[in-house]
Design a protein that fits this description.
Number of helices: 21
Structural class: mainly alpha
Mean pLDDT: 80
Order of helices and strands: HHHHHHHHHHHHHHHHHHHHH
Helix content: over 70%
């Protein structure tokens, strides 16, 4: 960034040598210089000694969060670096009071009219949550996430959609189930398809965090069942039924938003393909009845009438659902239908055979 000669003379006359970023922040310089100083401070904070961070940098940050600089350029620089600053300075803060001051400053920034400030806040939300911890999310950050997820600017909503999986991981199972259903449902019904597609691309990871397990844990195969009729077999069956019922209750709120998303997809084959690709991971989260009754009809619909690029993805989703079905009549009926549809002379190419063959194993 080029500075005017007046700014350079002001710095040189006030100080014989180049001042450090904290000293620049205390000088009455123009907004662009103060913004550059905040960026520089964020970049070099790892090199600052702990006593200097506690004695000089932290008071500057607390002062700024209590009374924000009214210049938009400074607010943009602070919003972009606030997450990194908090993660490095939170260990130097004394008690909850100082952390709460910084979170209040972040909330003020997230509600600014300036688009760039809100976009920076959306992008840095996971870092702010990491510093503030999940314990403070409900009281200090939840309303801000809802506000950003419903922002008038599509770039802000897109940034929130891209960060939700990380936010869910930071919140943990209980708080994720409690707080993230509303923003996820809202973003799934967003008017812009790029926002919906971004959320769908991360939906398996997001559902895994809601489930509270590591990636792939929810889809792990069950242990080998003991001999039929034994007490352990009955206990295992009861435990599996209880777990399935709980899973159905946990993920039931996501079913209708997903179906509405498909209903408004129109002629957007990319959005349809993204939804069907995510659907292939649904057996790890939804119950067999939910899969068979709610999602399987969509896969069959696009296998028969979807765009050329969508049909293979739909076949993969149908195959994944077929493997998850446990009732023999449902499995047989689905397999018979697929064989009937795609074994005809007039079938639409051979693209479905690579999916159907593994289903017979």
């Amino acid at each position: 960034m080029a500075f005017s000669s007046q700014q350079v003379l002001l710095c040189s006359s006030a100080h014989a040598r180049t001042p450090s970023p904290p000293r620049l922040l205390m000088l009455p310089l123009q907004a662009l210089v103060r913004a550059a100083a905040w960026r520089a401070l964020t970049a070099v904070l790892d090199l600052v000694a702990q006593d200097a961070r506690r004695g000089r940098v932290l008071p500057l940050l607390l002062s700024q969060c209590k009374e924000l600089d009214h210049h938009a350029e400074v607010q943009r620089a602070l919003a972009a670096g606030l997450g990194a600053l908090l993660c490095r300075l939170v260990a130097d803060m004394e008690g909850d009071a100082e952390v709460n001051v910084c979170l209040a400053g972040y909330r003020q920034l997230a509600w600014r009219h300036d688009h760039a400030v809100r976009l920076a806040c959306a992008a840095t939300f996971p870092a702010v949550l990491r510093a503030g911890t999940a314990r403070r999310y409900g009281s200090h950050l939840h309303d801000t996430l809802l506000r950003l997820a419903s922002d008038a600017d599509v770039d802000v909503r897109l940034a929130v959609a891209c960060s939700l999986a990380e936010v869910a991981a930071l919140l943990g199972k209980d708080k994720c189930c409690q707080y993230l259903r509303q923003p996820v449902a809202a973003l799934l019904q967003d008017e812009r398809q790029e926002v919906q597609a971004a959320l769908l691309a991360r939906r398996p990871q997001l559902l895994q965090q809601v489930m509270g397990g590591a990636p792939g844990a929810a889809a792990a195969p069950p242990p080998r069942a003991p001999a039929p009729g034994s007490a352990s077999a009955a206990a295992l069956a009861a435990a599996a039924a209880a777990a399935e019922e709980q899973r159905g209750k946990t993920f039931a709120p996501f079913v209708e938003p997903l179906l509405r998303l498909e209903a408004v997809s129109g002629y957007s084959w990319r959005l349809q393909a993204a939804l069907l690709q995510a659907m292939a991971a649904f057996p790890a989260f939804f119950t067999p009845d939910q899969l068979h009754d709610r999602f399987l009809p969509l896969a069959l619909k696009y296998m028969a009438d979807g765009a050329a690029a969508v049909r293979p993805v739909a076949a993969g989703a149908a195959a994944a659902i077929w493997r998850a079905l446990r009732r023999p009549p449902a499995r047989t009926a689905l397999y018979s239908r697929l064989i009937h549809d795609f074994a005809q002379v007039q079938m639409r190419g051979l693209w479905g055979l690579h999916t159907l063959l593994p289903m017979s194993c």
